[in-house]
């Protein structure tokens, strides 16, 4: 590392990731030293857009972390991405049909989310934004649970402690602070797990994110900052957010940053395993910049044709994360047509299940909005509950 850690936390044992034996010893944060000299930004890639495996100096550090990945594992990653895209497409359609108030699509970001999500152990803890539907899938959160908040029938939809997957966070960047605090707690407990915080390129301009970087660096917290640079923060392009490649910012805070091809699921898996391994071994935070693209609108309330060119979107479509792995599987004989046909049927069945589940969601009890505001009672909430109940009763009395 370029900066000595000031925290004297005892190094923690590496836990049982599925990684190949021997990979941990090869895991020096070399990217931290390389980043200062970067003229052309690095991009860790293991699969080209055409689906070919590549070996080069930039990925040599990370490739050992997926040495154990079998053809069956690759089919699993492919299935995860297809199921996630199908779910996401269904949610967008449900919003258009008036069944959801809003939806934030992950279209194009499947590899970043599945690669990083599958790098996690069960005990690790995840702090997502509002777009991490693929990570939720990896954590085992039922897709239908993601839709309650977007339908306006609940404030979250799942118990964060069941899957170590926090509720979606709309206040951009704030979850990086939650993750840092949680990671500081994990370190104090001497636990053998790591924490991952997801955020976007736009969120990286938030003060909260700078504070999270500072605290996690100084306390050497076991946290991975996983930034999906999807090139846009609603209508603001990345040029309006930063003057240096995003991953290089980490150096100023004293921890390594790595830019990975965010449309390459294998590279995302490798780099995230590497970063989690550092965290578990007591080497502190890492910034992973997954360089990807938001192929859809910011949300269903947005119209990207107002601010970005069709040629840009078309160029990124050629780097589609799902088509890239499909090309690889076909070229290597890793999957046959029957696999793709069966998966298509499975994803269609899931879409149908989600559609039916959303339509069947009961409307909430009007007074439920006052529940779970505080763990215990609170005088102001009690007063507001009483006022609202009186207001509702006034209609019943015919006033
Ligand atoms: C603190 C805060 N400021 C502004 C907003 C409004 N807002 C919602 S999403 C967004 C852009 C986020 O862009 P990025 O971090 O790149 O994530 P992406 O949506 O691209 O995944 C903004 C400004 C917000 N939710 N929270
Ligand atoms: Mg963005």
TrEMBL record:
This is Pyruvate dehydrogenase E1 component alpha subunit. Its EC number is 1.2.4.1. Signal peptide: none annotated. Residues 1-35 are annotated as: Disordered. SUPFAM superfamilies: Thiamin diphosphate-binding fold (THDP-binding). Residues 79-361 form the Dehydrogenase E1 component domain. Keywords: Oxidoreductase, Pyruvate, Thiamine pyrophosphate. PANTHER family: 2-OXOISOVALERATE DEHYDROGENASE SUBUNIT ALPHA, MITOCHONDRIAL. Pfam families: E1_dh. Residues 17-34 have a biased composition (Low complexity). It comes from Streptomyces avidinii. The keyword Oxidoreductase applies. GO terms for molecular function: pyruvate dehydrogenase (acetyl-transferring) activity. Its cofactor is thiamine diphosphate. It comes from the Bacteria. The keyword Oxidoreductase applies. InterPro entries: Alpha-ketoacid_DH_E1_comp, DH_E1, PdhA/BkdA, THDP-binding.
